[in-house]
Amino acid sequence: MATFSASAAVGEVLRQPDDLLKLTTYRNKLLKEKAALDNKLQEEIEKLMNTKDESDVFQKITRVSAVHRNFAQTAKMVEQLQSMADKVDYLGRLLDDDRSQGPISDAPHLLPIHFQLQQLESFRNETMAEAKRGNREEREILTRWFEPLDVLIKEFEGWMWELASNVVELARQGYGGTVVRLVKIIEFEGREDEKTVALRLVRKVGNDAARLRGVQGNARPIKNYRHKFLDAIEKNIKGKFADHYDRNELDLLGFIDGLDFMYKDIIRIKDDVEHLFPPDFEAVKWLIHRYHLALDEVLKKVVSSAPEAQVLLELYAWTKEYTRSMKELEVPSEWLQPPLLDGKAGDLLEDYVRLIITKLEEWTVNLQKQETAKFRTRTEEPSRGTDGLFGMDGVVDFFSIVNQQIDLALDSNQGAVLARVVTEAQAEKRPEEVAGGLVEYVMALANDQLRAADFTEALQNRLEPLVSDKYKPTIVDRFNEAIDGYLDVAKQCTGTLVQFVFNDLRPATRQFMQSGWYNDQLMPQIIETMRDYMGDYQSHLNPSIFEIVIEDLLDAFLITYLTALRRAPPNSLRMPGAVQRLRSDISQVFDFFTLYKPPEELEPSFEIMDQVASMLSASPQMVFMDYWNFAKTHGPQLQFVEAIMRARDDLERGETNEVMDTLKRKVRDEGIEDPQEPTIMVSYVEPTPTDKQVKVLGASGAASLMANISAYAGTMASKAKGMRSERDRERF
């Protein structure tokens, strides 16, 4: 390849025949170029050799410089070590002079002390970092040598945090310069911390030159003065509230009255402290927030100490005033988070009411015991009023107690408190929910009644042969009265157990004939609730009582359902969907009750629902046919029939009027009257002078259901008035 290149070069020169004559010229030219290249190459070689010699000299100079630098540093270190004790003593005297003036003072030597301490500390850090290369004994000697400096640094820092904890008071007393000097020190140390962190990060990268320059940075510890400064302020704020609480622990009303000191501090912060701090501190926001947190902490402590009712009331009023005052001071709500008492300051009213009610219950129980004893023994005649009427002192005493508690509630100036006290004073008149354990106790009570009846009957059978004929009727009558009483209580218990079920079902039964009734979820929920209750009842009730509960539950359900139909607004039943839903509901309920009773025993009870469904689905011309079957059993019930006819959305008002006119004529012509025997639609109360009939479904209100059931059951039992028959006893 080289030969080819030379030939090519010759070919370039000798292109023409006469070029041979120029060979001498070309040769001389090339010789000159070669000589120039040789000279230049020789010069470069000489430079290279000179550089090598110089590098050897530089290495020697570098080593000598390092030795000299180390010598100088050692000499300087020795000199500083020798003079350090005097400097530490001098700075200690300056510090003592400042501290002698107290924490609320000008602290004139704060910056000079810090400046010189910072230099001594840097010297110590560098020295100890270098000492790591030495042996343990040398490090221990240096550590002891620097002990006075370490003690002075700790004392100075303690003095700084003591000053920091009194920032607000310093500003109040006109020593804002002290705060500024503190902040300057904090900022300086913060910048030094940042440098130290940066140098450590660079060192981790592995750059040797940077590592050499970072000896001091690596030796200096991170001080976090800013955090310590803020911690000292926060500790002082908490201490103010804690001291105030300790001084007034036995006088919490005085404690609440004395909390106004924080408003003065906040005003001072906004007026005199804010300009002493750099903007990045957000001093006002931070300080007010810390006051808020400390206040919240001490208020929670007060609430947890179970204070008197008056303290709770005063505390509630103070929290309301706090919110208004902070708004007047133009403090943003964002700075006052989380809210006092976790936003549950309103619960103070609940606690206040609870205390009042506790006292009310305590006094009422004692009063009840006293009055019950008086009523049971009746050793004294009842008291007489000015009008000569008999009365019980307990009534007067009870209402006197209630009035006292209402007066306390009035002191709160809170309508909610007064409403709660009045509500609790009559809570037993209208309970909204079943108290825990009441269901179990009612079941136990019902069972106990049968057990007591059995014990009474056994005692009667044992004593009856032992007494003479003269006293036998009296004893038998008394035993029978006792047994009747036990069975009456048991019957009341069954009604109460059913009431528990329908109390839980109330939200669901209120949706009957409403929009939610048309979905498929309502009745399964109702049945599931009844199934849960019946499972418990069946497990814990006497079987005879459980049988009565099932009968009462069935009657209660049918009455509830028919009452809902009776109250359905005009044109609210969407036909034919309403009839389909009704038949589906009844089918599901029928299946449920077959779990506890044979179907043939249930069919007579459910017959009325089939009759009602037939009337609802009949055409206007054929309603009277289905009505006839209904009326033969339950009587005319024209109001009920008219109500369900008007509820149909497929009948116009005129059509409904025509239907009702037809039915009224039918009743009049056929002489249809209420049945002699009570049905679920009609019951008879105790005979009155007018022998007035009571329409079961005509009642209204939340209490009507159990009133209807009781009336119906009472009518059924009217034939057994007096001594119960053996059949009735066996049934129980």
UniProtKB/TrEMBL annotation:
Calcium in keyword set: no
UniProt keyword annotations, A-Z: Coiled coil, Exocytosis, Transport
Signal peptide: none
Domain of life: Eukaryota
GO MF terms held by the record: SNARE binding
A family per Pfam: Sec6
Coiled-coil regions, chain positions: 27-54
Similarity comment: family membership: Belongs to the SEC6 family.
GO cellular component, one term: exocyst
GO biological process, one term: exocyst localization
Protein name per Swiss-Prot or TrEMBL: Vesicle fusion-related protein
